[in-house]
Design a protein that fits this description.
Blueprint lengths: L2 E10 L4 E11 L2 E12 L1 H14 L7 E6 L2 H8 L2 H7 L8 H11 L3 E6 L7 H14 L8 H9 L4
């Protein structure tokens, strides 16, 4: 079974504001980049969505995956198992429920490990993911982060 490396980054201009994510998938000689931009979102949502989109891009289950991220929000919530406590408490007073549930659903299909990398520190793949995320956030045609926009309009983020 191949080892798959997924590098991720998220960005937003303003928090909330226009945002995007960037992902690199690499396994052996295979290499793929992914990115999308959204008109109104947050940095944490884009960091988490990058991880989700990377995992969702895998076309076979039960893969050995190492995710490299500069997001302490994402890595700590998973590695320190905070997200499981949030699930038990129904995400009371926690943001991004929609994305966390989506992450938990896709992550259980693979053997996932995380490595934290220091952002903006010259790590080539992290720098490339940052470029992809920032460029995506500046696209003329931005997607709608509908859950975020609906919930922020209600004043009660998931």
């Amino acid at each position: 079974m191949n080892q798959i490396e997924i590098y991720t980054d998220g960005a937003s201009s303003g928090n909330p504001g226009p945002g995007g994510y960037g992902v690199i998938l690499r396994s052996g000689s295979h290499y793929k980049e992914l990115s999308e931009g959204f008109r109104k979102t947050t940095n944490n949502r884009m960091e988490l969505l990058a991880v989700i989109k990377g995992l969702e891009a895998l076309n076979k289950p039960n893969q050995n995956v190492t995710i490299f991220s500069d997001s302490k929000y994402v890595i700590d919530a998973i590695e320190k198992r905070w997200v499981h406590g949030w699930v038990q408490k129904g995400f009371k007073d926690k943001k991004n429920k929609d994305l966390w549930l989506r992450y938990l659903d896709i992550a259980k299909q693979h053997n996932v490990k995380f490595n934290w990398v220091r952002g903006h520190n010259g790590h080539p793949e992290n720098e490339r993911c940052d470029e992809l995320a920032v460029a995506a956030s500046k696209n003329k045609e931005l997607l709608i982060d509908s859950v975020f926009e609906v919930e922020s309009a209600k004043g009660s983020l998931l």
